[in-house]
DNA sequence: CGTCTCATTGACACCCTTCAAACGAAGTGG
DNA sequence: CCACTTCGTTTGAAGGGTGTCAATGAGACG
């Protein structure tokens, strides 16, 4: 029934010779400086975490590993994904600066995470976080409201997957991503067409065709594959309402 | 996983005693007695809520309404759904006894809820809940972990919608629902084919055809539309792994 | 028996996947 | 400087799965 040909997964582990601190966990006291520089000193979590860096395509954690940390993206972009039994990849979510990764972890990670660009993260010990939340209602409520935001994002994702056509899914993705990076006109996409396809439940071919169609209608300009300009955001939004 | 799964028999008694109160919110002091009789006094939420009853197909709350309450299903089954711009319905989730409804509410309800059967719920004031959570870390953590469970359910839903064929989606639905009601063999479905279709992003026709196909393969027995028997649960699970 | 609702089944059209090929950019080596 | 490779992307052609349209079947109820 399922043709095993199109493996969405492109496991690229060849990104080597990453300069300096990439891939290393820095000491907590060095975080203080980094966090301040990154403008996240105000976060109630910054004192619980350590800064880690990963290169583009480098794994942050693997599916099934013991979930010792949750992460907050500081710089760059992260994708979380699962590899299905037939070898295909399902991208669960794209994570941008400020977003949490694996906040829902419980025991083992249920998906893998890797950088789409060079990425800086705050790695927070899950055990310490729950302990602190048990004594700090404000923190516990922050964790609750953050999880609820993830839940709403996931529900919106499910609704898109359930009901929209390919062109509408791509439009929805563009509109949603533009809103998240707070960019009205020009978008710099950290993800490949394959990432988008695996996120939207489509093939790379259909994503490409849909973008071409949107461009032919004058709704977008996607001449550079990683740079998309939204010409008619209102019309795009109406497409996927 | 399931909360208060042992209260079924008690709640049956309770339903009789308040049978004349369908559609009405009972006074809080009457709840105290009702909750105690129903055996849910141990819940940290029971003292915050009042019992409400709704008939099959009756609205619990509407999309866009001010979200004053969150709910916990005591008895019966609830569907939450959105009506899309083209008039189609997207079922967000089916809620069974113990499940919370609209725990993610923030301002206005983002979806509507109605009973699929006659249903008894605990209606908990959102304002009071958040106030209490601010002073009670254990409650805040309960809310967090409950939201995380909903998040995982939603992510699994999205994964099904993104990657599985019609037959696989139906199989996944049956397996998942069987696990939730802890029934290995025979399932009593509270939902119609249309509900299933709107949950799985399919049409009622495709759902019906898929069930017929599963039956022709000997995996299930679906002669009564609301009563399905899973003959080969392992094979069903493998279908949608 | 008639009506209503829900469910099943068939025929056909269409959208998306699959298979296949080609393009462009970046990197490598001759 | 130019072949040649590699990777990501785009595009074309054909096939299959699911939606649409239509008709029929099955219970529930008056």
What distinguishing features does this structure have?
homodimer, 241 residues, alpha+beta, four-stranded antiparallel sheet, 11 strands, globular, disordered N terminus, DNA-binding
What would your notes on this structure say?
- The structure is a homodimer of 241-residue chains.
- Chain A is of the alpha+beta class and 241 residues long.
- Helices cover 38% and strands 22% of the residues of chain A.
- Chain A contains 7 helices and 11 strands.
- Chain A has helices at residues 28-38, 126-135, 137-163, 166-180, 193-200, 204-216, 233-239, and strands at 49-54, 59-61, 69-75, 78-83, 89-95, 100-101, 112-115, 119-125, 186-188, 220-224, 227-230.
- In chain A, the strands form 3 sheets. Chain A has a 4-stranded antiparallel sheet. In chain A, strands 2-7-4-5 form a 4-stranded antiparallel sheet. In chain A, strands 9-11-10 form a 3-stranded antiparallel sheet.
- In chain A, β4 and β5 (89-95) form a beta hairpin.
- The model of chain A is unreliable at 1-42 (pLDDT under 50).
- Chains A and B meet through α2 and α3 of A and α3 and α4 of B.
- The structure holds a DNA duplex (30 and 30 nucleotides).
């Amino acid at each position: 029934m399922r043709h095993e040909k199109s493996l969405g997964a492109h496991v690229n582990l060849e990104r080597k010779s990453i300069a300096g601190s990439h891939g290393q966990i820095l000491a907590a006291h060095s975080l203080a400086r980094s966090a301040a520089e990154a403008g996240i000193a105000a976060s109630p979590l910054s004192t619980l975490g350590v800064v880690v860096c990963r290169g583009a395509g480098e794994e942050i954690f693997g599916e099934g590993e013991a979930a010792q940390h949750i992460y907050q993206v500081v710089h760059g972009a992260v994708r979380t994904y699962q590899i299905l039994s037939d070898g295909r990849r399902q991208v669960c979510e794209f994570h941008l600066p400020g977003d949490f990764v694996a906040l829902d972890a419980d025991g083992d990670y249920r998906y893998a995470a890797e950088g789409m660009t060079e990425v800086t993260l705050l790695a927070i010990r899950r055990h310490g976080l729950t302990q602190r939340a048990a004594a700090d209602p404000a923190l516990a409520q922050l964790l609750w409201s953050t999880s609820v935001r993830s839940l709403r994002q996931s529900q919106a994702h499910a609704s898109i997957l359930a009901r929209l056509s390919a062109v509408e899914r791509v439009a929805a993705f563009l509109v949603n991503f533009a809103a998240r990076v707070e960019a009205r006109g020009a978008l710099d996409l950290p993800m490949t067409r394959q990432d988008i396809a695996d996120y939207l439940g489509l093939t790379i071919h259909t994503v490409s065709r849909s973008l071409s169609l949107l461009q032919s209608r004058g709704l977008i300009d996607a001449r550079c594959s990683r740079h998309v300009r939204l010409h008619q955001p209102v019309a795009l939004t109406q497409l996927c309402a």
